[in-house]
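Hi both,

Apologies for the delay on this - the queue was longer than expected. I finally got the nicotinamide-adenine-dinucleotide-bound model through. Below you'll find the protein sequence and the ligand SMILES exactly as submitted, and right after that the structure tokens for the full complex including the ligand.
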Amino acid sequence: MAKDVGFTTMGDVLGDGAAPEIGIGMIGYAFMGKAHSNGYKTIPSMMYPPPAIPVLKSMAGRNEEAVAAAAKRFGWERHTTDWRDLIADDDIQVLDNGGPNNMHLEPTLAALAAGKHVICEKPLGRNPGESKQMWDAAEAAGLKHMAAFNYRFVPAIIQARKLVKDGVIGEVFHFRARYAQEWIIDPNFPLIWRLDKDVSGSGVLGDLGSHTLDLARFIVGEISAVNGRMKTFIKERPTAEDPSKTGPVTVDDAYMALLEFENGAIGSVEATRFGNGRKNGNRFEINGSLGSISYNMEQFNELEVYIADTEPAEANGFRKVLVTEAFHPYWENWWPHGHIIGWEHTFVHELHHFLDCIVNDKDVAPMGATFEDGYKCDTILAAIAESDANGGARVEISY
Ligand SMILES: NC(=O)c1ccc[n+]([C@@H]2O[C@H](COP(=O)([O-])OP(=O)(O)OC[C@H]3O[C@@H](n4cnc5c(N)ncnc54)[C@H](O)[C@@H]3O)[C@@H](O)[C@H]2O)c1
């Protein structure tokens, strides 16, 4: 017998009746549309036995030809140029919102009102007010909600968090992180939606900074105060529609912030889109009273761990831990140790977690980020922007 989880499209794909089907509707067919489609399609075979079989029902985008091609390529049953079709579709139980940031609020609220669970890309809102509306609506509806902070699903990062929570590096003194990309360093790079505050809410702060600040909260704990600075290096760019015309860049190209944590730790974090030579350079280090942990996402499966006072002293130092053992997070699903995985697997883990929470009525937090986490992250982002507007003054965080 299939488990009764209240869905209309109960399936028996495995032949043992164990996994229900869940219909997915996806907004966006580009970067995140591709990453999430790949994640869903990998779950049934690799995250075995799956908690549910995601059925790719319908994908929405603005351009008919492009969304039709993407839906066909990624295996969606149908496509639409009007996201409202996803909301009205009774075959869809989960809205996956991979639209730009100005598309997060309205479709998410509409989906929740229609009784659909929602996973929404980060940053959850363009500001904390938007994300609070989404969190309140999801809680009021009693539906599962997740902010798509996929770096919580890197096995090495989960392992780092566990080492911190288990006290292996002792009392945490420092969290420092640097997330550097280079993709808009060319002044002729066009004025795409990510550089328009009306659409994106902020620049690199909300884009890459949100990942860093979510990881800071995930690994170290709540942030109580910030000082922030932001910088826009190139203030005019060719418009995407007509390169002979220019328009204003209305967001930050780089940010830096100091953090105070409730547990007494302090942090320094930064991100830039002008890190010449850095493609997706996402690193952090945590220093504690008993040791340190360092992570560089370009070495996706590795942690550097230092435990002070290990013997013999002559051999003491940072050691490289290859996080690929069967006992490491999520590794029972993958390969023999040393046969590494990569960035795309974060989406497999993340979407698997969300489906598991829906079908088995588990809590999305603390391993996954909820809309509450999305709201808290957006509140910290807003505090950094407020600090910058006041010359870097200290801003206390209050939710
Ligand atoms: N978790 C991550 O690591 C990660 C990485 C990149 C982007 N993101 C987030 O994912 C979201 C999307 O980013 P992206 O890089 O995929 O952007 P993108 O520009 O590559 O794709 C945006 C998609 O949204 C669609 N879209 C825009 N307006 C729409 C509308 N009105 N109706 C239907 N579809 C519409 C576009 O057609 C496009 O397919 C953003 O919130 C971004 O911050 C997250």
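Main takeaway for now: The two ends are 45 Å apart (CA to CA).

I'll put the files on the shared drive as well.

H.
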